[in-house]
Design brief:
- The protein is built from four helices and 22 strands.
- The protein is an alpha+beta fold and 391 residues long.
- Among the domains are: 91 residues, conserved putative lor/sdh protein from methanococcus maripaludis s2 fold (Beta Barrel), CATH 2.40.420; 85 residues, Elongation Factor Tu (Ef-tu), domain 3, CATH 2.40.30.170; 75 residues, Helix hairpin bin (Helix Hairpins), CATH 1.10.287.
- The strands form five sheets. The chain has a six-stranded antiparallel barrel with strand order 3-10-13-12-11-14. A four-stranded antiparallel beta sheet has the order 2-15-20-19, with no helix packed on it. It has a four-stranded antiparallel beta sheet with strand order 7-6-4-9.
- The model has no long low-confidence stretch (mean pLDDT 84).
Length: 391
């Protein structure tokens, strides 16, 4: 049996120590390797995260839909404030905002106690005038008979005849005054002048109604609009006014309904340039049978834009202004940035004409970061048509 100090035992212990030492070295090496790999991954992720994601698009040529977008607002075809023609107190109202009414429909009634009393007084004045006229006529006839007997003079007869004529005129004046009060009595009933929709109601039961004859400030009772047809007036820049003609069809879009367009008809232009704004006023009309569009709504009219050959358009937010001039960030094949000098043409609203420096085959960054520089690496994302409109 070998002793602990035998050569075999020594060799076995030495082997165990070597195995343990090798495992320790491997563990340390693996730890260092894994930490370096994790650090490399972290650096790579940080570098990727540092690359900005940008939206890119191709410049639009005139053939691809260049257009002049101008703002405006819709107006009802007919729009009328409704006032009272007689004074009094509101007895009742029959319609409220948003309700459709027809021509002649009763929409409110006014109670006029003072008008009633004045009408009674006018009736009494008429009866008095008729009695005075009859008496004057009888007296004139008697004086005519007495003139033949030389009992009265010709002057006396003339006086009585002209007095009878004056009294007859007073009868007509009293009758007209009574008719005026009868007409005011008709005005107690407020009716709609045409088919439309009530858009405003400014009164309630018991409200004092004044025609404004005393202080010149009449109160609007209702506001009525015929919205079955709408119109809009668009100021077109002077240099583009010649491109708009009577009979043209103009697409319009409405705020809040960007996924839909309507066709409006250009019915006429002002045929004159506003000397202050240097624009030509254009009238557009469109049917609205279902009341889908509301008067007063903000719209954008899309006029077909005609440009010279080689001219392209880009959203205005793609411009980069530097001390050296105006640039756009063009994407190179290796996803790096080149700041391309450009020449700006006309402002088309949301879009800008680029007359030099770009072509339709390039990719341009829309809304570039403020600190973008030549040679920067970016992660491009092609923009959809809807994103272009929103940008």
């Amino acid at each position: 049996m070998p002793t602990p100090s035998s050569p075999n035992s020594f060799k076995r212990m030495r082997l165990i120590v070597l195995v343990v030492l090798l495992c320790a070295i491997l563990a340390v090496a693996w730890g260092i390797f894994s930490r370096r790999a994790a650090h490399a991954d972290l650096v790579s992720d940080a570098e990727q995260a540092a690359i900005p994601h940008v939206g890119v698009m191709h410049p639009l040529s005139d053939e691809s839909g260049g257009e002049l977008v101008l703002p405006g607002s819709l107006q009802a075809w007919v729009e009328t404030p409704i006032y009272a023609h007689t004074s009094g107190y509101l007895k009742s109202w029959k319609v409220d905002i948003g309700q459709a009414v027809t021509a002649g429909q009763l929409i409110a009634e006014i109670e006029t106690p003072e008008i009633v009393q004045q009408a009674l007084q006018a009736e009494a004045d008429l009866r008095t005038a008729v009695a005075n006229a009859q008496l004057a006529e009888i007296t004139a006839q008697r004086y005519t008979t007495l003139l033949a007997t030389k009992t009265v003079s010709q002057q006396d007869l003339d006086n009585k005849q002209y007095d009878a004529a004056a009294k007859q005129a007073a009868v007509q004046a009293a009758r007209n005054n009574l008719e005026r009060f009868h007409q005011l009595d008709v005005y107690k009933r407020i009716v709609a002048p045409y088919n439309g929709i009530i858009t405003v109601r400014n009164i309630d039961i018991g409200t004092m109604i004044d025609t404004g004859s005393a202080n010149g400030k009449a109160r609007e009772l209702f506001h009525l609009a015929d919205t079955r047809k709408l119109r809009a007036y668009i100021p077109v820049p002077e240099d583009q006014g010649a491109l708009v003609h009577k009979g043209d069809t103009v697409p319009i879009s409405v705020r809040g309904q960007a996924d839909r367009t309507w066709s409006a008809l250009c019915t006429d232009t002002a045929h004159a340039v506003d000397p202050v704004t240097h624009t030509v006023l254009v009238e557009l009309q469109l049917d609205n049978p279902q009341n889908t569009l509301l008067p007063g709504a903000y719209i954008e009219a899309h006029f077909r834009q005609h440009s010279a050959p080689g001219v392209v358009t880009m959203p205005a937010n793609a411009l980069i202004f530097r001390a050296e001039g105006t640039f756009m960030a063009v994407l190179l094949p290796d996803n790096t940035v080149h700041l391309q000098p450009i020449t700006v043409g006309k402002n088309l609203g949301r879009a800008i004409e680029i007359t030099q420096g770009l072509n339709a085959g390039q990719q341009v960054i829309v809304s570039p970061p403020d600190d973008i520089s030549e040679g920067d690496r970016v992660a491009p994302e092609e923009m959809t048509r809807m994103q272009r409109k929103k940008s």
